[in-house]
Specification:
Elements (H helix, E strand, L loop, with lengths): L4 E6 L6 H11 L5 E7 L3 E4 L6 E4 L1 E2 L8 E4 L5 H4 L3 H11 L4 E5 L2 H7 L7 E2 L6 H6 L3 E2 L4 E4 L4 E4 L4 H13 L2 H10 L18 H13 L2
Parallel strand pairs: 1-2, 1-6, 2-5, 6-7, 7-11, 8-9
Antiparallel strand pairs: 3-4, 10-11
Amino acid sequence: MTAQLQVAIPLFPCFTALDGIGPYEVLQRIPSVDVTFIGHQRGEIRSENGMLGLTADATFEELAEPDVIVFPGGVGTRSLQSDARVLEWVRHAHAGTRFTTSVCTGSLVLGAAGLLEGLTATTHWSCYPELEAHGAVPTAQRVVEHLERRIITAAGVSAGIDMALRLVELLVDRTAGEAAQLMIEYDPQPPFDTGAVARAGEAVLNRVAAYAELRR
């Protein structure tokens, strides 16, 4: 029997739900993959708006050497960038992973751990300066790969699905990735075309800023 690939998805207060759940939905479709949500302690952890809670089934130390890390983002990553326990876990775990990945501002945690120094990387478009402060070179690419370093970063929120599909291809094969895409019926046909800053007008950007301010 083939050994299960252990995927760790960290949870923390004020995480962005789809950053973790999007990759989870892709990866858990593959029989050889076992996904575990981890955290500072076991138990429920609430998302950034407090409306959703997910359960961490293990602590960082209990899953110290996963095969894959998928580090989600969210406003909670602000404090994680100076959390010695989390940063040490990232460094230790990365030494043995097949791939260390992030979604959205999860890349800021990888950067704070020293993994992105001098590398191109991506995050949510509003956080490029913070990413650059960790020594990375921000790029607007949706998914950025450094396979020789075993590092992949994905842009904001929904980009985690794209990254996870690519991850399945790397871990298994292309057909597995395509099968996962079909199983989740991932066939985006959005009613609008404002998913990138370059295609969003002033009115849309102003509304984004207003909503963000109300969420503070």
